[in-house]
Write a structure and sequence with these properties.
Blueprint lengths: L4 H23 L8 H11 L6 H12 L8 H18 L9 E2 L2 E2 L1 H5 L1 H19 L6 H15 L4 H12 L8 H30 L4 H28 L2 H4 L5 H4 L5 H5 L1 H18 L8 H12 L3
Bound molecules: farnesyl diphosphate and magnesium ion.
The site of magnesium ion has 3 residues, from loops.
Length: 305
């Protein structure tokens, strides 16, 4: 009997999630010198039950290019740390002002605003400290640091967020829907897509991917990142806060542009399906070793949280 892709994803996730969680726990012990409240705030957000999709992507990409997943674990943890920091800061009153994240009170609700800002700062630094634990040749570690720093930096994650808070994704009447769509895609390629693409690139770098494999991973990551954001918007419209572990429908209530808001639910769903088809096709040069990456792409379409 052949395994369906949801079996394959579930099988990979069942094996990888506990290992990722154990690594995050290990790398965030912070015993010496770290004030107890700061440590608690860091771990409250980092160890909260997220889906761990980005660290899984690091491990899957490494395996797809012939490395052992364990070799990539410091990079997987580093990506999740940056993701966790970005969620802590995104939830702050100065940004989205949210009170619920991953089914828990947001960091600033639990520990106060100043401590949440500091927990985010510390997670960002801890990510690079953790990445430096890779047991790879120095040139690979340096390349990984550059990829992660660029994706987390002013032209990608932070830049996309800056455009977003400046109203770049706010609906207005004086732009055509084509322009609005281009603006929305530009924000999300940086805000969401860049970290997803970086996760996949890190796995490839650690496995010494050849140029053909690297190009395939690049095409896959770009399409997956955008499809992920479209499904995020669609889930927000559906509004199942219990499954999502965060408040829903806030973007549309604030007048922010979303894919379903611009294209409608059906066309958004079709756009995401097309991107996922392209992402899966991009994996062809990697052959059967990319089965887990293919399964994750399908999972992104069918997810409910
Ligand atoms: C949900 O991921 C998160 C996103 C779709 C990314 C949103 C981007 C930001 C909040 C950028 C913020 C940037 C800064 C610099 C503050 P997920 O569904 O994988 O969440 P999970 O890990 O909790 O499962
Ligand atoms: Mg938010």
């Amino acid at each position: 009997m052949t395994k369906t892709s949801s079996d394959l994803f579930a099988q990979f996730a069942e094996r990888a999630r506990p290992e990722i969680d154990a690594a995050l726990d290990r790398y965030s012990q912070l015993d010496e010198g770290c004030p107890a409240k700061l440590r608690e705030a860091i771990r409250h957000s980092l160890l909260a039950p997220g889906k761990r999709l980005r660290p899984m992507l690091v491990l899957m990409a490494a395996e797809a290019c012939g490395a052992r997943a364990e070799a990539a674990m410091p990079a997987a943890a580093a990506v999740e740390m940056i993701h966790a920091y970005s969620l802590v800061h995104d939830d702050l009153p100065a940004m989205d002002d949210d009170d619920l994240r991953r089914g828990r009170p947001t960091c600033h609700k639990a520990f106060g605003e100043a401590m949440a800002i500091l927990a985010g700062d510390a997670l960002l630094a801890l990510a690079f400290e953790t990445l430096a634990k890779l047991d790879s040749p120095p040139q690979v570690v340096a390349q990984c640091s550059a990829v992660l720093a660029e994706a987390a930096g002013a032209c990608q994650l932070v830049g996309g967020q800056a455009d977003d808070v400046e109203g770049g994704s706010t609906a207005s009447n004086d732009t055509s829907s084509k322009e609005a769509l281009a603006r929305l895609e530009s924000i999300h390629r940086r805000k969401t897509g860049a970290m997803i693409s970086a996760a996949i690139r890190l796995g490839g770098l650690i496995a010494w991917a050849d140029p053909l494999q690297e190009a395939a991973l690049g095409r896959y990551g770009e399409r997956l990142g955008l499809a992920f954001q479209i499904t995020d918007d669609l889930l927000d419209v559906r509004g199942d806060e219990a499954a999502l572990g965060k408040r829903a429908r806030k973007d549309s209530r604030r007048g922010k542009l979303t894919f379903p808001g611009l294209l409608g639910v059906e066309s958004s769903r079709r756009h995401a399906e097309e991107l996922i088809d392209e992402a899966r096709e991009a994996l062809a040069p990697l052959g059967s070793s990319a089965g887990a990456l293919e399964a994750l792409a399908r999972h992104v379409l069918d997810r409910n949280c």
